[in-house]
Amino acid sequence: MAVKCNCPGCNDKLCLHKVPIFSSLDHDELVKIRPMIHHREYKKGDTIIFEGDIIDSIVIINEGSVKAYKNTSDGREQILYVFSEGDFFGEQNLFGNQVSTYSVEALEKVKTCNLSREMFQKLLYTYPEISVKIIDELGNRISRLENALSIGVRNVDNRIGWILLEFADKYGTADEAGIIIHLPFSREGIANYLGIARETLSRKFSQLENEGLIKSLNNKEILIPDLGKIAEIAGNS
Amino acid sequence: MAVKCNCPGCNDKLCLHKVPIFSSLDHDELVKIRPMIHHREYKKGDTIIFEGDIIDSIVIINEGSVKAYKNTSDGREQILYVFSEGDFFGEQNLFGNQVSTYSVEALEKVKTCNLSREMFQKLLYTYPEISVKIIDELGNRISRLENALSIGVRNVDNRIGWILLEFADKYGTADEAGIIIHLPFSREGIANYLGIARETLSRKFSQLENEGLIKSLNNKEILIPDLGKIAEIAGNS
DNA sequence: CGGACTGTTGAGAGATATCAATAAGCGTGG
DNA sequence: CCACGCTTATTGATATCTCTCAACAGTCCG
């Protein structure tokens, strides 16, 4: 995903190169935008934004990954997204409501590029292609949420299959024995992503392992011998 | 929501006036866009788009309302949205994937304005403010879906409260006894919206009625004496 | 007025949450 | 490098909730 920049005068701080939404801009344009960007750095466990905070800038992840989550009224932590290099958040808050609808926490060391509300809006008017990219990405997020909603409201098994597919796609590496998923977080995190109890996830995973559909290599890695069978569980059409 | 157009030469077919995403354009610009629009009409029960269909245009609702839903792998119908006058759909399919991720069915007589993929994209480049409006609206939809997901994955009571609030906001009229909601669809429809069994909804509604929190006037109207108490049920923070 | 669809209510089955106990991993400091 | 303690994960037993099946009531429409 990271685009190597070999142009003169461009150091690794020019994170804009990594960001898909700016990919249509040429180097000169990026250089113009550069001074508008503020850089931030966080360590694992830091909270970047609290739900309810006022946000005045869009945040683009330059390095590392974060989780975005809501604290529900029954005391759970519902994870909505895992964002990593090149992803952005805070865009909902650039127009009407300026209050963040979720908290964001660093899952590892994270570097961000922050672009103020005003600057970002100005960019959208100057470079319509940025808007188009954003609309595209928001459309993808919407599709994903719609899927999660329609799958997840009832059937837990489907939802587990679905999340395994998502993880395989984002964090999987091919191996001779199948696909190895490097999980972005612990079992508890996965349970919070799925909105189920930690214990239930444990049971389901044990069951899947007994059936040979997954193999738990360690707490952060899972081997999937046959992705097709997982897709069946997910009820993929 | 409907904007009265009193300019000369503008008949009621100039639906663009009703559409928030075009609200920043002046009359001359709208007139230019007008020839690009194709009009369609549907009657109650008509399916406007089937999940899986190839979509090549964005659809803006000029009159009436529709439901957008997915058929889940376990045979349910999961309703995702109710769109009405001024709302649009099909925008996810204008870039990458051209296949509709949901079906859309008319809940009553519906008139639409259809704008082709190519024309729509051209508009976005010509009028950046349209993109900004769309990003804003997509942000709202995302927030709503995130809410539905975090509320709904587990707690059914919260979800019922939440949907009552949504309905009160969209379809409610103030009355001396409280807020009267004119439901967009049947109990079965509401159950499909919530992703629960029809019978469960019945029971929950009976319970709420016993507690005096709602009053079922008839199958299409509900009275809410105290919205605050419903908000409590929704677990609103 | 009758039929079909929609809504309500009851009883039992199935699934997941919760509580509790045990086991396994992880980091820290000796 | 190992031992200790703390956190995370697994497994078991029970409780709670929602679904499903079934019967009945109500409503809409021809």
Automatic annotation (TrEMBL), chains A, B:
Which of UniProt's keywords are assigned here? DNA-binding, Transcription, Transcription regulation
Specify the superkingdom. Bacteria
Transcription among keywords:
yes
InterPro entries (UniProt xref): cNMP-bd_dom, cNMP-bd_dom_sf, Env_Response_Regulators, HTH_CRP, RmlC-like_jellyroll, WH-like_DNA-bd_sf, WH_DNA-bd_sf
Q: Which GO terms describe its molecular function?
A: DNA binding; DNA-binding transcription factor activity
* TM segment ranges: none
Q: Could you tell me which residue ranges the HTH crp-type domain spans?
A: 154-228
- Where do the Cyclic nucleotide-binding domain residues begin and end? 21-141
What the entry lists under Gene3D superfamilies is as follows:
Jelly Rolls, Winged helix-like DNA-binding domain superfamily/Winged helix DNA-binding domain
Extent of the signal sequence: none
Q: Which Pfam families match?
A: cNMP_binding, HTH_Crp_2
The record's annotation in SMART domains points to: cNMP (SM00100), HTH_CRP (SM00419)
PANTHER family from the entry? CRP FAMILY TRANSCRIPTIONAL REGULATORY PROTEIN, LISTERIOLYSIN REGULATORY PROTEIN
Q: Does the keyword Iron apply?
A: no
Q: Which organism is it from?
A: Herbinix hemicellulosilytica
Q: Which GO terms describe its cellular component?
A: cytosol
**What is this protein identified as?**
CRP/FNR family transcriptional regulator
